[in-house]
Design brief:
Oligomer: single chain
Shape: globular
Bound molecules: uridine-diphosphate-2(N-acetylglucosaminyl) butyric acid
Largest sheet: 5 strands, antiparallel
Strand content: 25-35%
Number of helices: 7
Distance between the termini: 23 Å
Order of helices and strands: EEHEEEEEHEEEEEHHEEHEEHEEEHE
């Protein structure tokens, strides 16, 4: 399907109005390959759109938006402990998590209810409740947008970091991810309940299972995070900053209540939500954009906001956190 001068409003969870010069929906990896060969894309003028849940359009896009919609799940390999499964890029992320839990395969349960599609998961190495998708990905199958060649990236080649990968850095915009392979664990599974409020929520639920963890995660997320269908948002707008020991010691003296986690490399991760709240932004509005009243890391579209208004608000927050704490917040969301 090809559309011209097409509205992207339904295709970004901020729900901002933006149009693209051309929009192409792809229904198979073969169709994607044929398109890339035919079009000979200029990668500066073409954008692969996944679930639109980590993107902010601040103006119309004057190139081609490509949307992979193929969404099969295949079991590739089974051993006594593990199963390797492959999921196509256009599959709704949470459908995959639901499928894995229903099939009693462990690993993805803490990542329940994250908006977006499978193809975007490796790009920003999605993570939640003590789990990161990079620990489960074995291979990422791609097509080069420059020369249409197929390339498989093994886990080590993806250069995964906190909300980071090679696809966000030197290879940004150069590859279309067609499918992702995951190594999931057969029962018995070791559960990952290390993150803050997960274990208490599970406590009165009886036996801990993949299903009960999934339910608990969905409950916590629904309580704290706004539903994009009701209030446009893209989850965490900023990354949690990592600071060195000296800055940490200095800030901790001034702010005794500052939460933090040691990173294992002698540095400290500080919740951006705390910094933003402390700087007075929680629940604040700036025109039609705002900071969610239940979670300060979530910027929201309060109704018909332009992407540029949300961007402006984010820049005001960055300035204010920098002047108060000397920390420069980095946006997690892709700005177009
Ligand atoms: N906090 C505040 N004010 C708030 C909210 C939180 O001070 O309004 C403080 C609290 O001290 C809380 C701490 O921030 O203990 C951490 O909050 P939370 O557990 O909600 O996690 P987060 O660090 O804000 C990260 C991810 C989320 C993920 C949660 C749970 C990033 C950028 N965000 O948020 O991911 O769901 O942990 O694991 O790492 C996303 O990436 O879009 C996303 C939602």
């Amino acid at each position: 399907m090809i559309r011209y001068n097409y509205s992207l409003r339904k295709y970004n969870t901020f729900g901002v109005t933006a149009r693209t010069r051309r929009f192409i929906n792809l229904t198979s990896a073969e169709e994607a390959k044929a398109l890339i060969i035919k079009e000979n894309f200029d990668t500066n003028n073409c954008l692969v759109l996944s679930g639109g849940s980590n993107i902010l359009f601040t103006k119309d896009y004057c190139g081609t938006v490509i949307k992979p919609s193929f969404d099969n799940i295949t079991i590739e390999e089974k051993s006594s402990d593990n199963v390797i499964i492959s999921a196509e890029a256009g599959l709704e992320w949470d459908r995959l998590v639901e499928w894995s839990v229903e099939n009693d395969l462990g690993g993805l349960e803490n990542l329940s209810f994250i908006p977006g599609k499978v193809g975007a998961a490796p790009i920003q190495n999605i993570g939640a409740y003590g789990a990161e998708v990079s620990s489960l990905i074995t291979r990422v199958h791609t097509l080069s947008l420059e020369n249409s060649e197929s390339r498989i990236f093994y886990n080590e080649e993806c250069m995964f970091g906190y909300r980071d990968s090679i696809f966000k850095n030197e290879l940004k915009g150069k590859y279309l991810i067609t499918r992702v392979e995951f190594r999931l664990k057969k029962s018995p599974v070791t559960f990952n309940l290390s993150y803050g409020n997960l274990e208490p929520v599970l406590q009165d639920k009886g036996e801990i299972t993949l299903t009960s963890i999934r339910k608990a995660v969905i409950k916590i997320r629904k309580e704290k995070l706004p539903d994009p269908a009701v209030k446009g948002n893209a989850g965490s707008f900023f990354k949690n900053p990592v600071i060195d020991m000296h800055r940490y010691a200095d800030l901790k003296m001034r702010y005794h209540d500052m939460p933090s986690w040691q990173t294992g490399t002698g540095q400290y991760k500080i919740p951006a939500a705390w910094l933003i709240e402390k700087a007075g932004w929680k629940g604040k509005k700036a025109g039609r954009a705002g900071v969610h009243h239940k979670h300060a890391l979530i910027l929201v579209n309060l109704g018909n906001a332009e992407g540029s208004e949300i961007l402006e608000l984010s820049n005001l927050i960055i300035d204010s956190v920098r002047s108060m704490f000397g920390i420069t917040l980095v946006k997690e969301v892709n700005i177009i």
